[in-house]
Amino acid sequence: MFKQHHVAPFTILALGSFLLSQTVLPVHAAALMGFEDSAMLMTEIGRYNQEWMLNYSPTLGHAIGVEQMRMSGKGERATTITGIHYTGLIKRWNMPAAQANLWFNGSAGQASGLYDGFAYTPGLQFDMESTRLYFLAKARMIRAPNMNYDTAAVQAGFSFYETGFDETQPWFVIEAKTMRNNDPGLQLTPALRLINKNYFLEFGVTNPWQGEGFAPRLNAMFVF
Question: In the predicted model, what is the mean pLDDT of the chain?
Answer without folding.
Answer: 85
